[in-house]
Amino acid sequence: MTRESEIAKKAKKAKTHEQQGLLDRLPDDILPQITGFLGSHDLAKVYVSSKKFRDASLERLLELLKVKQLIASGGSTFAITEEGKVFSWGNNEFGQLGLGHTNTKDKPTEVTSLNDINVKRLIASGRSTFALTKEGHIFAWGNNNFGNLGLGDNDNRYTPTEVTSLNDYNVERLITDDCSTFAITKEGPIFAWGNNYSGHLGLGDNDDRDTPTEVTLNENQVKQLIVGCNSTFALTYEGRIFAWGNNECGQLGLGDDDHRDTPTEVTSLNDINDINVKELFVGDGSTFALTEDGRVFAWGNNECGQLGLGNDDDQDIPTEVTLNDINVKKLIASGDSTFALTEKGRIFAWGQNYSGLLGLGDNDERETPTEVTSLKSYNVKRLITDDCSNFALTEEGQVFAWGDNKCGQLGLGDNDNKDTPTEVISLNEHKLKELFVYYGSTFALTEEGRVFAWGLNESSTLGLGHNSNTNTLSVSLMPYHNHYEAKTRLPAQKQGESEIEQG
């Protein structure tokens, strides 16, 4: 061996020791998180050993990778970091993860094609995915059977593709129900495309559309647009309601069960004095209107008593729900069950009660609003449901869960259904920013940007690196910002150098 080769070998060995020393300084659970983020153990080692990493504090690194938005739909999960990077994992049958293929991913994988796009919000709709940018543009990918991506054809897309036909507009909101899509623009017009089986696009016919087509609402400015079970509703800023689409249970509130293929005003509420509708909610063929003063009106499907009217008869016009002076703050129409959250943090429930979903201590249906008394001493600020399982978040930071638990989605360490709210003790030490459950899979996003997941995982929806269900909180393989930086510091970033980069 030449002297030059020997020197090179020693230098390489010294560098290896230096890198290993850096790795040894990290807390035990940091490397697995970075490994999950970058996709391989070797790549993670290269990354944490790089100059950019050495010159930045661990606090700065984890702050950059902090998760700010988390959504899940149809077995697919997405996260947006504070830095604007998008990650996806889980079911990918139609390319809805946006990774250029249809392979399932069991851990978060970066959607690199979105790196140069300022994503404001992601909308996951079953088998299709949309990104709304800060400039008001739309990118779409995934299933496109009905032209629901708005790209002028019916071909699936495996990577984000811009909906260029709307580039002249600034889209503010995007609403979708799996196969139909609506865009509300800053300029005022509303556009619809995709499946139109029941005329619910509001375009005067039942023909599908593969490009955005304007919906005529006669200059009415829409405050809220909501779609469900092939029925569509628009609430204007003046408090007027327009409805169209499927009407088999009278859910359009027009006094009959005839479908409509153009927006039609629900005039029966106009004759009631002092009615100012604040928000609309739709369940499985059921419709609800919440007024500014906390009153509730219901109509449509009432098979399980979910309208709260004391019977199980369908209603084809809005009918007031008797609430005995209870001021409702928020309403949740969850399949065939309904929940009301009051201004004082109390919960009332009625309708279907499969698996104890109503939280009333039994499995019996209710036809009138009934208080969940076990939570009466708590001030509930938020209620989350997925038609089968419920979570209540209190002002004091506690989390209670009940309902279906066959996949362990309640996070209580077992798979037993619960018919009364039960505290999820393991969440007490975390300050939650977001919690949601989607058909058996549950996710919690903390204020520090950490992601926890539990429950159904057959499509690797939880992002844990495997596809086994879990009934306890598990850390998703997303990078996070945590308490370790206070006791484990790397050299501070040097002034004038760029922020942390991969590699």
Report a brief summary of the structure.
This protein is mainly beta. The protein contains five helices and 32 strands.
Number of strands: 32
Helical content stands at: 10-25%
The first-to-last residue Cα distance is 32 Å
Low-confidence stretches: 25-29, 35-44, 51-63, 479-503
Question: What's the shape?
Answer: globular
Structural class: mainly beta
Largest sheet: number of strands, sense, barrel closure: 4 strands, antiparallel
* Beta-strand proportion: 35-45%
Report the mean per-residue pLDDT as an integer.
85
Number of helices: 5
Which strands sit side by side, in order, in the main sheet?
A: 1-2-3-4
- The radius of gyration computed from the alpha-carbon positions, rounded to a whole number of angstroms, is 25 Å
Describe this structure in words.
The chain is 10% helix and 38% strand. It has 503 residues and is mainly beta.
List keywords for this structure.
single chain; 503 residues; mainly beta; 4-stranded antiparallel β-sheet; 5 helices; globular
